[in-house]
Amino acid sequence: MPSFDKPTDQQEATRDARGADSRAATEAALFEAFGGVRGMVETTVPGLVFVAIYTVKRDIHIAAIAALGLSLLLGIARLVRKDTLKHAFSGVFGVAFGAVFAMMSGDAKNFYLPGMLYTLGLAVGYIVSALAGYPLMGLILGPVFKENLSWRTRNPGRKVAYTKASWAWGLILLAKSAILFPLYWWGDVTQLGWVKVALGIPPMLLSVYLTWIFLSKAPPPIDVFAEMEAAERAEREAEATAR
């Protein structure tokens, strides 16, 4: 006599397949949203070039122009490959802002200050948004998963996952800021530069990994775009029938 308490092999296989699909979709969405490993490298290498050249030459202008030139080349490479440009533009803008700030102030440490302030502001944004019930990670990834804000009212498990992910990002970025700002105030530019380069990719990878863990265990997203298309299709069919 079959047991109705335990799922059948077919049900378990279907559930496992759906879980694998959900994890794969989550991984793809995270890579799209955060630029993947390549995007992380592109945001880290210009800073490495700046500190390396400044350590040897002790010339702010040469180091800043070299870092900006490399950032532009990386952006052009994305353009040639017809890749998404949003990460390249943000990288070029950040490097350009830091380069101009460093050259105008005459202090090489200021090359890193705009990025540090952005990181600190982002950390605060993640934490405050999680406390307010509108976790920033959900606002970022909701459109990527085609669920928009449906996770807030219709999918509480997703909201919990986005809240946990936002806390993870906020605390990790806050810890990064707690290491970098004392070096900005009391260290020299080479110390700040090398530590910032070292903290470029690992915290990001940890944050993305934790986000993937939280979302892969959450319920699947509700595709609100598919729902709207289905509603429009049903409305057109109803109008056609009425005629």
Order of helices and strands: HHHHHHHHHHH
Q: Give the low-pLDDT segments.
A: 1-7, 9-19
Please tally the β strands and state the result: 0
The profile of the biggest β sheet is:
none
**Share of residues in helices:** over 70%
> How many domains make up the coordinates?
1
Number of helices: 11
Overall description:
It comes from Streptomyces ehimensis. Keywords: Membrane, Transmembrane, Transmembrane helix. Residues 1-21 are annotated as: Disordered. InterPro entries: UCP010219. The structure is a single chain. This protein has helices at residues 9-34, 36-57, 60-81, 86-105, 113-132, 136-141, 150-153, 156-186, 189-198, 202-216, 224-242. By secondary structure, the protein is an all-alpha fold. The protein has one domain. Helix 1 runs parallel beside helix 2 and helix 2 packs antiparallel against helix 3 (60-81). Residues 1-7 and 9-19 have low confidence and may be disordered.
Short key terms for the protein model shown above:
mainly alpha, 11 helices, disordered N terminus
Write the topology of this structure.
Elements: H1 9-34, H2 36-57, H3 60-81, H4 86-105, H5 113-132, H6 136-141, H7 150-153, H8 156-186, H9 189-198, H10 202-216, H11 224-242
Protein name: DUF3159 domain-containing protein
Organism: Streptomyces ehimensis
Region (Disordered): 1-21
What's a concise summary of this model?
By secondary structure, the protein is an all-alpha fold. It has one domain. The chain is built from 11 helices and no strands.
